Amino acid sequence: MKNLLLSLFSSASALLVILIFSAGDLTAQTPQFFNSNNGTSYNSFPLNVAAGKMVQTLIAAGEFNQPIPATAGNITKYYIRISTGYPLGPATYTNLKIIFSQTALTALPTGSFYSGTWDTVYQRASVTLTAGADTWLAFTLDHPYAYNPAQSLVVQIEQCGVTGTFSGYAVQQTSTPGIGRRSYCGTACPFVYGGLTTSVVNCGIDVGTSTLALPDLIYYKFKNNTPGFTPNFAVPGVGSNPAPLTGTGLIFTPGGQFDSCISGTGTTGSHVNTNWQTNFGSGSWTISMWLNNLPNNTTLYYMFEEGTGGFRSFIGGAAGAGNVILRGTGLTDIIIPAIAPGPTVVHFVYDSATATISGYKNGVFALSVPQAVPLNLATGANFQVGGYSTLAGINGQMDEFRVYRRALNQAEITATWNYNLGVVTGVTPIISEVPENYSLSQNYPNPFNPVTKINYALPKNGFVTLRVYDVLGRQAVNLVNENKTAGSYSVDFNAGSLTSGVYFYRLEVNGFTDTKKLTIVK
Questions:
Q1: Which of 357, 388, 416 is at the close of a domain?
Q2: Which of the residues 58, 443, 494, 506 has the least number of beta carbons within 10 Å of its own beta carbon?
Q3: pLDDT digit string (tens) for 15-66?
């Protein structure tokens, strides 16, 4: 164990335990967030079956709520609670695998295994596990898994044989009467469905900062901070910042995916002039956008465009009524159907490893189109959002325009398509002297309506996140999400869009974390 941070919410009587551990699967550890550690029933599935076993369990949204609700981010470790009186191992497993999926379901299907979109997060041809009774068995994932706490997490664990010390009922669980939450196989390797129970495995997760979710090229929330300009919140970002709106057919309006958006009337020459010279080259990339109130006919309106290679997206026209297309020189068209009128979040994902472009609607895979030859979108003309310089721009609304220089995977898309990554400006340095310690001050005034100040101090430069969460652990506002130089800062937080109640705000920078409570009274 490298570090242990304890933060006490004075009036909430909730203890936030943040644990950062050294690498390794077998050391006794405690999860950052867990559903339970005191279940009253036990099971030998899947760890204590010599011939092998596979189990699926569903942890519903909000159930990783100990010691406080889990936050969004990247799952880096998964834990299983080993039950009282039944220590495990040393036991050696063959073909041990853990796979994750997220879903809106609150129960597993009856009569068959859950068959959603899976991501294999841990896999070993052979591994030896040891864990004491009444402890957590920890698995360090092979790669981070983008986690959305507003959805259920389905976990499948399977193994094809175990030798060593593994007798007894090692896995602790809790019953959820009337709800099918745990399915298991009837035969081992290959696994055939065996049945469904109401038990939920006592388990936990560690969640890291969701840096994988941040766009690194363009991220427009279309906030009207400066009339006629929109900030680019990408890290580090490209082109002009803020970027100007060109023409008379685009305006800022309320009613976006999370806050404001741009609205267009299909006017020729209207677009956001990014001043980014497109340079994906032969690498992977992802472009996503929220669209609403689109015309459901064959009239052509543009979503974005880069002139040199004809790299562009539009609705109608060759795409067909209500469909959105991506096309360009040397690119095989990909058409995502039934987008209009919306609201719909569209993803175009190019994976250079397979030379394939995939399309997604509202986080769900729609189709893939193999490209005849690998794409090479070298340096081109100015990339324009919401229109085409000489043709009709968007007719409807656009928000959350995100461009990444990599291919998002299904887990990231599932976790972020309807998740607010937004940055709120209004952070100002208050003194030039470098403080000696990291600190997060209590907001003032508190309680408040609707504006308060939050001060924090940095003795060193670092990437700062300051986020506000509701009592269920759901992110409400992202106040700071950028690199800051050493110094003391004051953040003006306007809670006009939030309801009355208790919230928590959390500062993270350079391994330092602190959380405090605030109260909105309206």
A1: 416
A2: 494
A3: 222 222 222 333 357 899 999 999 989 999 999 999 999 999 999 999 999 9
Domain annotation covers residue 421:
no
Report whether pLDDT(138) > 90: yes
State residue 191's pLDDT score.
94
- Could you identify the residue written with the tokens 């609707």? 450
Based on the domain organization, do 237 and 327 belong to the same domain?
yes
Strand ranges across the sheet with 301-306: 229-230, 243-246, 271-277, 382-385, 301-306, 311-315, 324-328, 331-336
Please tell me the least confidently modeled range out of 290-294, 332-336, 351-355. 351-355
Q: At 200, which helix (H) or strand (E)?
A: strand 199-201
Is 501 within 8 Å of 517 (Cβ atoms)? no
- The better pLDDT of the pair 184, 353 is held by 184
- Three-state DSSP at 408 gives coil
Q: Which of 159, 188, 209 represents a domain boundary (last residue)?
A: 209
* Residue 279 is assigned to a structural domain of this protein: yes
One domain, residues 203 and 311? no
For 72-178, where are the E strands, in sequence order? 73-81, 88-103, 119-131, 136-147, 152-159, 162-164, 171-175
Percent of the chain clearing pLDDT 70 (strictly above): 91
Q: In this structure, what CATH number is given to the domain that contains residue 490? A: 2.60.40.1930
More reliable by pLDDT, 336 or 421: 336
pLDDT in tens, 144-182: 787 888 889 999 999 999 999 887 778 999 999 999 999
Cα-Cα-Cα-Cα dihedral of 365, 35, 67, 12, to 10°? 90
If asked whether residues 184 and 146 sit together in one domain, one would say yes
SS3 (DSSP) at 410 = helix
Judge contact between 295 and 315, C-beta under 8 A.
yes
Q: For residue 327, give the H/E element and its range.
A: strand 324-328
For residue 31, is the peptide bond before it cis, meaning its omega torsion is within 30 degrees of 0?
no
Average pLDDT for 431-452: 81
Domain of residue 452, residue span: 427-520
What is the CA angle 318-366-327, rounded to 5?
35
Q: Is 355 exposed, middle or buried (0-12, 13-18, 19+ CB in 10 A)?
A: middle
> Are 249 and 373 contained in the same domain?
yes
Asked if 513 and 465 count as a contact pair (C-beta separation under 8 A), the reply is no
If one counts the domains in the chain, the total is 3
Q: Are residues 381 and 285 in the same domain?
A: yes
Residue-wise pLDDT for 42-51, tens only, equals 999 999 999 9
DSSP 151: S
Backbone angles phi, psi at 189, to 5 degrees: 45, 85
